[in-house]
Amino acid sequence: MSTTTGRALAIVACAAWGIAALPSARAQSIEQGLLQLEWGDPAPAAPGKVQRESRFNAHLVRDDGSRIALDPAQARRAAGDLYVLANRRVAIAFGAPGKTPASAPAIEAIVPADRVSQSAPVTAANARVAAAAPVNGVTRWVTLMCKFSDIAAEQKALPFFQSQYGEAAGQLGHYWREVSYNKINLAGSSAYGWFALPQPRSYYVTQENGKDKADLKKLFADCGAAADASVDFGSVQGVNMMFNGELDGFAWGGGSCAPLEGRANLCTRVTWNPPWSFSNLAPLAHEMGHGYGLPHSDNSDGDDDTYDNPWDVMSDGWSNVVRDATYGARPKHINIFQRHRLSWVDAARQQVLLLGDVTTRQIALDYAHLPGSTNVQMLVLSLSPQADPYATVVYTLEARKREGAYEGALAGDAVVIHKIQASGTAYSVDADVPPANTSNNEGSMFKLGERWLTPEGTHAVTITAQTATGFLVTVGPARVMSSPNPPRLKPSGVSASSAPSSTDARVTTGGARVPPATTERCTEPGRTTAQKCATRAR
Predict the structure, then answer these.
(1) DSSP code per residue over 47-99
(2) What is the pTM of this model?
(3) Which residues pair with 12 in a beta bridge?
(4) From CA 223, how far away is CA 221, in angstroms rounded?
(5) Distance (Å, rounded) from C-alpha 16 to C-alpha 9?
(6) Element (H, E) at 230
(7) 221: phi then psi, degrees, rounded to nearest 5
(8) Is 193 in contact with 146 (CB distance < 8 Å)?
(9) Which of 526, 495, 520, 493 is nearest to 508 (CA)?
(10) Is 271 helix (H, G, I), strand (E, B) or coil?
(11) For 92-126, how does the pLDDT look when each residue is reduced to its tens digit (9 = 90+)?
């Protein structure tokens, strides 16, 4: 048993029995409380401008309402999959403080201390643990429209916000039913306001290190208090707050607590939206996704911009979107692993191919957006297990089609592959070298006749046919085929569990794989280097 696993098991025991015991000689204290995560998402960058990076806060809320700020990097390492613990009771083991008096104690382990059931993992026990916190049934949200005392503008009227929760195509009630395969609904969701905040914007948004910083806790406390007499907060599962002025350049989503309903600390899912966010359903759905505990997705270009994967509203919500005259940019669906996180993908719709499986099989992979599918919609390829199961990489395959109220502007009909690693983050795979800045390119879409190998060379995937409901995918062991330059199944010095990179590539005609260390592309007579070749199914 690893040291980390031993500490985690000890914390679970202490949490269950209420024993103030140390899980290891290194641990100095154990704290219990509610884990709250907050994601800050910037407004879309103007043409020619660099997109601002996202922000992320993590806190432990003690039972007395006090909060402990957690170092995000330490928290991610200590929890394995931090995001699955959002809005849940946890136990945290803190180590000894750092060498300086101001140094915070290190976080050694974070484990659940509640009894929330989790869905079955999608991989074997010796591979990656893909935890999921179920979100099912009615999730009633309320919208609070709040005005800063020094800003009079009311950008939208109450009927607009009320209608956002509707059940017609292009409204949030319809969207969340569709994306969850009818696992959740927004029944009873409603809007209230406008309410007057007691303070001007400058009270809630201050300067820190020369940058605007919104006090999210004050905003929720005062906006909630203004609405407390009108809203039954005890019956809601989420609060969307709409402010009539800019916050700190970001919209926010996650969880928070406020003194409401006569309680010192009522905690729930919360979003904080400036006008540019609530005028479009895509960013509003993105923040609600954070409220449900969903993290960002990303592409595989290796930069710091997490908003460059347009196959998931939890990454790039602005590209390849259907536009609505009333609600602006509509949200696309989330990727299949995000759906799995919340237990929305039935076990019968999942298929896992483990490391060492040498059987060649043809799999009917249905489009991910189809409700009532009778075939696979989430195909998982496992790679070599690591000592830390959360460091083990898996790949998920899903089929996407450019149709419908939300997916009608996707880049194309294709199999889309995501690499799952780094605390459960999904990175879209791009076969182009170098990867595109935004993964709506051909390299990110695997189409009829194309073939792809996992970096370890353990699985070869060929798209053999397109059907009325998706694609037929043939998966089997990689075979070295004759070619002038033998394929490099695993480039030297590249680990299968390393950071996302351009090491994933398609196989070219004749079986030679494009070497990922170069910018060379496959060519055929009459084709440009920007065009790709494909191995046709035999």
Answers:
(1) TTSPPPPPEEEEEEE-TTS-EEEE-HHHHHHHHSSGGGGTTSEEEEEE----S
(2) 0.86
(3) none
(4) 6
(5) 11
(6) none
(7) -60, -45
(8) yes
(9) 520
(10) strand
(11) 999 977 655 556 789 999 999 987 655 545 544 44
